[in-house]
Specification:
Blueprint: H1 5-20, H2 25-40, H3 44-47, H4 49-57, H5 74-85, H6 88-101, H7 103-129, E1 132-133, E2 139-140, H8 143-150, H9 155-182
Antiparallel strand pairs: 1-2
Helix pairs in contact: 2-7, 6-7, 7-8, 8-9
Subcellular location: Cell membrane
Protein name: Sodium:alanine symporter family protein
Transmembrane segments: 20-43, 77-99, 105-126, 158-178
């Protein structure tokens, strides 16, 4: 029987941890979400692939003013998007999967990535739909914005705040530790 607050908190965190990081919960959740978006969006990762490449490289420029307006060039936008998606976890994760699981692990990573493309597409579209401009004219948005503005009901603000706090903790502590321990 726990006697102090630290033991009670540890027991709670341990039970949540064993549920979330259990054998199959996250795999089913992530792949199920990807499958849902793949079907709901009409296999967007297949049928819109050519259009995506055309938008990405159609008027590729190295200078932001090339299109007649100030801002990011298409190269800067691509480099920023790739930097946000590919990190230490992708490199170390693929290497670890190959060593631990053999070549079959790469196949299952491709399957998960295929489903993840539809989830990523949905997140990007939601971020574009629910973005706003602040008082100084800068565009602001992201998951906390589309959670609070896209969901209806009293839980929307709570979920957006919870996400914001969780991402601060993850990026401030956990993300740095993964990078530091992977090198």
């Amino acid at each position: 029987m726990p006697t102090n607050f630290a033991e009670i908190l540890n027991n709670c965190v341990e039970s949540i941890n064993s549920f979330l990081w259990g054998p199959y919960f996250l795999i089913a959740l992530l792949c199920g979400t990807g499958l849902f978006f793949t079907i709901r969006l009409g296999f967007v990762q297949i049928f819109k692939f050519k259009m995506g490449l055309g938008k990405l490289f159609g008027n590729f420029s190295l200078h932001g003013e090339a299109a007649g307006k100030a801002g990011m060039s298409s190269f800067q936008a691509v480099a920023t998007a790739i930097a946000a998606q590919v990190g230490t976890g992708n490199l170390v994760g693929a290497t670890t999967a190959l060593i631990m699981g053999g070549p079959g692990a790469i196949f299952w990573m491709w399957c998960a990535a295929f489903l993840g493309m539809a989830t990523n597409f949905a997140e990007i579209c939601l971020a574009q739909i629910y973005r706003t401009k602040d008082d100084s004219g800068h565009t602001i948005g992201g998951p906390a914005f589309y959670i609070s503005r896209g969901l209806k009901g009293k839980w929307a603000k709570f979920l957006a705040g919870f996400f914001a706090i969780a991402i601060i903790i993850a990026l401030g502590f956990i993300g740095n530790m993964v990078q530091a321990n992977s090198i």
